[in-house]
Structures are given as structure tokens and as C-alpha cells.
Amino acid sequence: MRFGKNPQTGAEWSLTSWRAPNDPATGDYRQVLDTKGLPASVSWQGSVKKYSTGPWNGLWFSGIPEIGSYSKEFSVQVVVRPDEIAYVFNAAAGAPFSCLVLNQDGVLERQAWDQANGKWNVWMQSPRDFCDNYAMCGAFGLCNEDDAATQFCGCVDGFSPASPSQWSMRETSGGCRRNVPLECGNGTTTDGFIMLQGLKLPDTDNATVDMSATLEQCRARCLANCSCVAYAPANIRGGDSGCVMWKDDIVDVRYIDNGQDLYVRLAKSELVNEKRRDMAKIVLAVTVSLLALTSAGIYLVWICVLRGRGRHRNNYAHKKIHGFLSASDELDDEDLDLPFVCFGDIVSATNNFSEDNMLGQGGFGKVYKGMIDDNIEVAIKRLGKGSRQGAVEFRNEVVLIAKLQHRNLVRLLGYCIHGDEKLLIYEYLPNKSLDSFIFDAANKKVLDWATRFKIIKGVSRGLLYLHQDSRLTIIHRDLKSSNILLDTDMNPKISDFGMARIFGGNQQEANTNRVVGTYGYMSPEYAMDGIFSVKSDTYSFGVILLEIISGLKITVTRFTGFPNLLAYAWSLWQDGKAIDLVDSYLLETCSPAEALRCIHIGLLCVQDNPNSRPLMSSVVFMLENEFKPLSVPKQPVYFAQRYSEAQRTGENTSSSVNNMSVTVLEGR
């Protein structure tokens, strides 16, 4: 496949989007190879540049370094000749068929043919997230996808927002300006450079390129040109070589894994300040390291004492828990690498499981607050004795959560097996669960719009990690508001993995005769047929999203004629009154555009057909990219309220709603 242009004739090989998936008329987007400066693949919507891959660096486009991960299956290169500048993509022998598609929303997709299932799968797509939007942080702005607290945008060191008031309103396209002007003129300068690492390089439309220069020559040339504001190596194949220099400003810069080095010009006084800040960081780092080493030493002493005191019990516990794990092929042979806590310490920590220490009660047991190891607060989950479901939950939570690490997943600190007792020790989260806020008339006032939006995005990222970014594919199967815990800063953490299932290899879905979950949050295909997949969790997320927006439970029936929250939300959406769904406590702090977009996304997630629901990667992208067009949702299936009553009794029930047979088994 070739993609580019002929400089001599002006002929161009590019992509144009369709108007709609079923309408091949010319759409709004074009994908072309921009040959100014260094070649880059660029998306345009009319005359507006929407996305750039970043310049070609000899190995890949600097904004998508993951291309290098697929070198065994596919080879990529940029060819530069008098009659052709082109991006060339070749498949190795045995690689799947692939194609490049620019869809109706302006998203560029590399699709690979799945021979076994007879369909095209999206292998890579761009833009991927908020920071991929072209020049979102303006001139000298730096986008950081992991820094939602600053709305992702910051300034290069030595620069500050050009309009602080606009930045406070999340309008960052105005970019940043220098704190101190450069000192350059009459052939002399005292300026210098700071090195920024791990970046997608700036747009090179305003850059000059010399592939024969060394990096040292590049630095000297930039200093000699008062208009030059930054430089970088043009080619990283086989080491840094070549020279690309930017004049006046730099735009479309972001942090990215396996990114490149960029040297930005600053005045001498700013460089001195940078050195002072660096020295302060070093002193702080050394101090923190010494404290950490001291703490680690104390911790190791404690571990040795604990192991010496309970080595026999620990070995016994490991043998016993591996007995629970015989059905878990993926993880049975792996070490738990999780501290075993003796039962006596837990009894002391919870004041003998005092009612005063109880935080709550779930389907499989009670949760207590405890104090261990020098007044460290923990939450201790005590599973019901002799419960078959409790053993399954214990197996899943110990082995599964111990191997998952994400800021939006609850952290498991230890476990205990003592006779029939099975206990799990978690980090203590003082704000308890999400449902205790959004459904409580007094507590819901604490969650303003910004906090609720942060919670929505945090839960979506946690689910994306489970589905795609961890080394396993995990289906939670019991996602609900009461299983979303909140830390001191109201950051959400997904909990309760007792019903979670692991998918291996290319597995897309599974079927079970034992449907477990919570009424209202279960997807139709799971509740009726026992079929579950990542799209089942997407459905549950959609329900939670609508609950967060409205402050209403999924089973709400106080609106005449509406069996539940989904029916109410859909009715308002159809009537063009979706904004009426927003919790009245949010009216003063709410961003109407964000709220309506969230409602729209929520309705997309709860569509009846799982194939119509978005993947969580798309949900995260839609939540963080306000400019991405959204498809039109289809009417969700409504479950009658009488099933809620049946599930509370734990009875197996079967009936009909909308000509569909609905079976709810072992409901909680």
C-alpha cells in the first residue's frame, strides 16, 4: 500500500471518508501525507487540520511509536524520490490481510482480517485520545494524557499560559508564552536549551530539515538563528542524526511512550532557574529515598517476624488456596506474591469483628474496618462460612486482583485462611461507595459536576484496563454503583471481583448456565441467555453513567409510565429534553454540553444489541474528546420492575417482557 504524492505532477494518493457507513458519498474528512518539513500523515476536515501522526523519524511517525511493535508482521517506510514522497506499508509472509480506512468520524483505522470469524477487526486507530487532537494545547503547550487534573494541558518549562482565564475555562488552544524573552541579536546570544524527553515531535510545517547535519551542528545553527526556538534529530534509525529546526513556535506536542527528545530554547535566566529546580528535585529525591529505605528496612523486619511466626500456617494457606484454584488454568501455577495475615491479627484489628467496626454487608459476607501495623487503616472482607459462592469469590479476588494494578481498581493488601474462615484485606477508602453519595439527598450535594465527571472517566479507564490494557482480558460481570469505591479525593476504584471471568487468546464471549449479577445492571443477552463479553460490562457502565448524571437508581419507578431509569432517559432523549435528566443539585456547576454528551454516551452503552455498544476504548475516547461526533443510539430494552422483586428473594424466575423471555438466576 502506498500513500503520498508526486511532487512533480501534484498527483496525490490519499483517503477520503464516506458520508456514513452505508453511504459512499464523499464525507467531511481527508487523510493526506503532508510533505512540508518531515513527512507526516494528516487528517483534515475541510480546511481545518484535525490530527497529525507527527513527523517521520526514520522508524515510525513520532506520534505512533507502537508501529515498531509490529515489525515482524508489517514493514513501514517513507520513500523520498524526485517523483514520489510516499508512506509504504508492506505485509510480511503469513501476516493477516489489512486495510487502511478513514471512517465517517475522521478516525483512521488500520483493520486486519480475522479469518476465523470472517470479519475485520480494528488493529490500530488514530486519533486515540484527547491529546491526539491537533494542537489542543496551542503554541509551546504540552499535552499529557495522564494528567487530567490540569485538563491534560500544560506549558513547556519557561512558559506560562498566554491567557490564564481562558485556561481556567479549559480553553487552552491559545497556548503559552515565554516567561523571559530570548536574548539574541547582533550575532550574539546567551540563550541555551532544555531537553524534553518522551515526546511526539511538533508539527514541522514551520521547520527546516537537513538530513546531513549532526546534532551538534543542529544546536549551533539554531543558536545562530534568532528565530529558531527548538531543534531535534531528524532521524533516529541507528542513532540520532540529521537536523530539524523550528522557528517562531512549536505546536501539537504531547508526551507519549517511547517518545523522542526535543531541545527547546530558553533565556539564560530561565536556564539558571531550571538548574535550581533540578537541584531541589535531586535533594528531595535523595531525602525521600532515604526515608523509603528506612521504611523498607522496618517493613522487612516486620515481614521476617511475621513469617517466622506463621511460616507453617502460611504454607498451609498457600496449599489450601491453590486447592481452590484448580479451575483457573491461567493462574493456577503462579505465585500469589501477596502477604498472608494470620487470623489472630485480624481478630485484634477488628476488635473481634465488632459491630462498631462493620462498614457494610454484601452478598457474600461483611466488611469491617481494622487497624494493622502501626495504625494502618484497612478494610477486611469476611466471607460467609461454608458458602460455595464465597469460595469462588475468594479464589477470584485473591488471584485476580493481586495481579492487577491500576489507579482505578481497589488494591488488595493481603488474605487469610483459617479453618472455614476466608478473609481479604483491602486498602481502606474512607468515602465508601458511590451509591452512598449519588442516591442520598444530603451526600449527593458533595459531588459537584466536575467530581461526577471525574468519577465517570475514572471508572471508564478502570474498565478499559480490565478489558484491554492488562495482561489478561477480565470481564467484571457485577459492575454497579455500590461496587465503585471512592478515595479521599473522590477518585473511583472498581471493587468486588468475585464474579469476574478471564478471557484468553482470541476469546470474544462466553456462555454460562449460572447467571449471577445484579438486576438492572445486567445486559439483556446475559440476563436472558447467559452470554457475556466485554460489551456486558459496557452495558453496566452505561447504567452507572446515567445514575451518576441523574442521581436516580436504575430501578426508579416514581415517574409514571416508566419502568426504570433507562426508559425515563430514553423518553427525555426522544423528546429533546435530555438535559432534564441531570440531577437538580448539579444545575449550578454543570456543563450542559458535557452532561448531554455523557447522556448520549450512556444511551449508546445500553443498546440492546451488544455489537451496537462501543468498546471501552471508544468510550474513553468519546468522554475525553468533545469534538468526536457520536452515532445515534437505539432504544434500549426495558426490564419490568417485578423482576427486581424476584431477584431480591433469590428465586429463579422466568417471564416475558417486550416478547422476550427474561430469566434472572441467583440475583443479588
Automatic annotation (TrEMBL):
This is Receptor-like serine/threonine-protein kinase SD1-8. GO terms for molecular function: ATP binding; protein serine/threonine kinase activity. Keywords: ATP-binding, Disulfide bond, Glycoprotein, Kinase, Membrane, Nucleotide-binding, Receptor, Serine/threonine-protein kinase, Signal, Transferase, Transmembrane, Transmembrane helix. The chain crosses the membrane at residues 282-302. Residues 353-628 form the Protein kinase domain. Gene3D superfamilies: Phosphorylase Kinase, domain 1, Transferase(Phosphotransferase) domain 1. Residues 184-267 form the Apple domain. ATP binds at residue 381. It comes from the Eukaryota. Pfam families: PAN_2, PK_Tyr_Ser-Thr, S_locus_glycop. GO terms for cellular component: plasma membrane. InterPro entries: Kinase-like_dom_sf, Pan_app, Prot_kinase_dom, Protein_kinase_ATP_BS, S_locus_glycoprot_dom, Ser-Thr/Tyr_kinase_cat_dom, Ser/Thr_kinase_AS.
